């Protein structure tokens, strides 16, 4: 080669530097500091344990054992993929806030198969933004005040009017009637007494069974039946759409000016397929979750007579004021006055945990609190485990609405920090219907607490996380009418 010692030296040091460089790169690549945990069996990993049903007011044996052994951030193998599970409040917030930047939604493929590829739950990027914008406009504050509130009260009273003194029934199905009728009215102007509404409701029952079942597309399975129901529901919506377009072309203005279907037909550029998936998903998201929320409130309250009493006083006071002013219908101001009710709503959602965990994946290599989260891994923020951890909420098993009063004057708030409360998710995908769901709960509570006392018929009729939350026996209650309030309700109907 060269006999210039300087050149040789340069060459050698260059080689050395290169070697060291590759050595460190290599080292950095292989040396992931993954969270602790075990991967379980090949392919199925620990999925079966993770999905095993348990009491909805607990975080479940699987979570408890794993947190005890590995801490609040651990690795596992779930839904056929390597996964990081987080029960850590800070990390969950970090994941949700960085949606689209470091993480992305990643629901199992079966969810897209059944809710549709244009469902908001599986969309990302611009398409998600546009669909979300439509949903937010549909459920905006203004519309809640001007459209939803009146209808909600109407539909609540319609359901309650069948509750006779001393009768026993399933609250879960009554609440579902209420939320379904409300959404069907707001989305497509369907009336509850129409036969077609009943038909659609039936299809949604079998659809729901498929959403939560194993995604086996074989004859006879719940999933196969649900795909069939999906087609019937889509046909139904498409028929409604065609009717509307025909009427629009003929220049007739219907009464339905203000529902979602008319709005998307007039103001959006969505294709037929996109509109169908949007409407199917909103009708689904809008009744399955909030009906469980209402059932949970009715389940928790009898266990805490003091809360029941304070709640009733709050609503009686509102009713008194309305009577004095001669106003019958509930107004937005009345809703704002329901301070303790808001505490009961938050506490119900915290303890009941309707949505227990979310599906995300890392779209970059992420480093967090000393751990590496490799790009492509599944990331599951478990909201329920944060809500039920004593380091986030004092005595987490305890239904204690007063813990939420620290936001106002001088409540007994323990260590409640509402930034650890994430029942509706967070970040750019925060539940679009959160305000709607809370309003529904408050209106329903207003009328039931003024008109009825109730008791749980069966002590073992408890909410179970499958992991979607449900009362296996439908939450049977027996009601007693409160005579004095009855007259008031009648005057509204
Ligand atoms: C108490 C009842 C409810 C709970 C606990 C709840 C919970 C949630 C959660 C946790 C998410 C986030 C999903 C994720 O980040 O992957 C979500 C999203 C969503 N929810 Fe709700 N929800 C409720 C009621 C409703 C209602 C009444 C509607 C009305 C249609 C609704 C519509 C939606 C929509 C459209 C999204 C998708 C938002 C997006 O991706 O941008 N939800 N919900
Ligand atoms: C969202 O909807 C509003 C009202 O229709 C519209 O003015 C706004 O431009 C939309 N934003 C996006 C990002 O599409
Ligand atoms: C409430 O329901 C009654 C029928 O029970 C109906 O006549 C009335 O128009 C409804 N009001 C609203 C605001 O929807
Ligand atoms: C209410 O129902 C229960 C059981 O169904 C019955 O034992 C009781 O006598 C009934 N009370 C009244 C006042 O009808
Ligand atoms: C709809 O599409 C047309 C052209 O394709 C575009 O000019 C218009 O801005 C779009 N409108 C919306 C609301 O996206
Ligand atoms: C209920 O939780 C929300 C956070 O989702 C919080 O903003 C609100 O202040 C809470 N309500 C009360 C009464 O503490
Ligand atoms: C609540 O938690 C957030 C971060 O998680 C923190 O910034 C805030 O100071 C806490 N608030 C209280 C009152 O402790």
Automatic annotation (TrEMBL):
One of its GO terms (biological process) is brassinosteroid homeostasis. CDD domains: CYP90-like. The chain crosses the membrane at residues 6-25. SUPFAM superfamilies: Cytochrome P450. It is found in: Membrane. One of its GO terms (molecular function) is monooxygenase activity. It comes from the Eukaryota. Its main location: membrane. Gene3D superfamilies: Cytochrome P450. It catalyses: cholesterol + reduced [NADPH--hemoprotein reductase] + O2 = (22S)-22-hydroxycholesterol + oxidized [NADPH--hemoprotein reductase] + H2O + H(+). It is a single-pass membrane protein. Keywords: Brassinosteroid biosynthesis, Heme, Iron, Lipid biosynthesis, Lipid metabolism, Membrane, Metal-binding, Monooxygenase, Oxidoreductase, Steroid biosynthesis, Transmembrane, Transmembrane helix. PANTHER family: CYTOCHROME P450 26, STEROID (22S)-HYDROXYLASE. This is Cytochrome P450 90B1. It comes from Vicia faba. The lineage of its organism: Eukaryota, Viridiplantae, Streptophyta, Embryophyta, Tracheophyta.
